[in-house]
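To fix ideas, we quote verbatim one protein's residues and fold tokens.
>
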Amino acid sequence: MDNKVFATPMSASDQPGAIGAKKAGLGLGYFSIALGLAEVAAPGRLARLLGVENDTAKKTIFAFGLRELLAGVALLRGPAVSTNVWNRVIGDMIDAGVLGLAARSSTRKRSLALAGGVVAGAFVADVLTARALDRETGRTFPRLKRNEDPLVEPEFTPEPHDFAAA
């Protein structure tokens, strides 16, 4: 009988220098909660900072804060579920579009540009994390067992391999 050693590819979290996709997902969850709390607690102050002081801007910032809180809770419950991170990517694109619309009427263009830079940075972090999670699980939408919570990380069971046939 041959004693062959089968190497397994390193996951993103096993690579030297990598913080790990699951830890990144958890960090994004905390970031979402912090940002959401700021947007819900002070939409008027944020609107003033961005130079768009009107009721529509304040209501939009408040609604975006609620969205961030929901995204954060989902990520804290399932930091390794890539669909939770892909939801943030969609939110980033919405944020960028709304900031672009706000640029037409903003009286504080530099603050708005800084906010756009933050959104761009979050977008990059979100896409990289979501793709790393997709690589680790092998799929964007993990299979759920009946009665499983879609927001919580599913148990990962590797596919059985017949090494004798190799």
User: Anything to note?
Assistant: Confidence is low (pLDDT under 50) at residues 4-13. The radius of gyration is 20 Å. The CA atoms of residues 107 and 160 lie 61 Å apart. Helices lie at 21-41, 43-50, 55-77, 82-102, 109-137.
